[in-house]
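Complex 256.
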Amino acid sequence: MSKPAIQFNHVTKSFNGHTVIPDLNFTVNQGEFVTILGSSGSGKTTTLKMINGLLQPDSGEIMINGQLLRDLDIVKLRRHMGYVVQQIGLFPHMTIKENLAVAPKMLGWQQGQIDERVTELLKLVQLNPAEYANRYPSQLSGGQQQRVGVARALAANPPYVLFDEPFGALDALTRLELQKEIKRIHSSLADKTFMFVTHDLNEAFYLGQRVMIMHNGKIEQFATPDEIMQVPATDFVKQLLATGHQNQALWGQYHD
Ligand SMILES: Nc1ncnc2c1ncn2[C@@H]1O[C@H](COP(=O)(O)OP(=O)(O)OP(=O)(O)O)[C@@H](O)[C@H]1O
Ligand SMILES: [Mg+2]
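Predicted structure with magnesium ion bound:
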């Protein structure tokens, strides 16, 4: 039985009188890996920020694990949501280990428990703890820093992890490697709900168990990659698939 983890009911959002999200409705189930695919300005980041309480909807309801988000304690909510963004945002004056320890420390974990967790996290993202734990962010490549960004989002073992174009600034090969990594991490951790924003069709179709295609703040289609490929719901989706057509050979390779 699938259990609803994140639900939007008639959610609307405007900025300065300009409607960005006119009426958003969807349900993401516990343990799902959902990607949100859409062009620039389609409302992807706004949607993620409403899920972790950085932005409030103007109207409508957001439910997290069956509870109204506006009734939840915001600090507690954030602890339950890992957040990875493109601009990594590691603390430059802290070592990798210290960066990873921030959330566990806030939760009052014992030092021994934190050390264990840091080692476990670095292994999870395939960085050798002996080599990297005591380095500073500037001593890592962009791809390595982004691995730490992913590890940090997972540090306190949150049930939800939100990713906002985390690999956008990386070269194609590093990006592919991290895509594989993130997919492996999702399947290795039980019951984690991942929402991953991207404007890259291949990334969205490779990672998402379901893909939410957004345009102008509306969902054009929300379905499995196969369903979208077989029955594109709107002209926009058809066009999107056509533009991605030249890359489909590559997408096929991903799925071998
Ligand atoms: N704080 C804000 N104040 C005013 N307008 C905003 C604000 N945040 C977002 N917007 C506007 O809302 C719309 C949607 O923005 P959003 O950041 O959600 O898009 P996006 O899909 O994440 O785009 P991108 O792919 O470029 O990151 C845009 O037109 C943007 O200019
Ligand atoms: Mg964005």
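The chain has eleven helices and ten strands.
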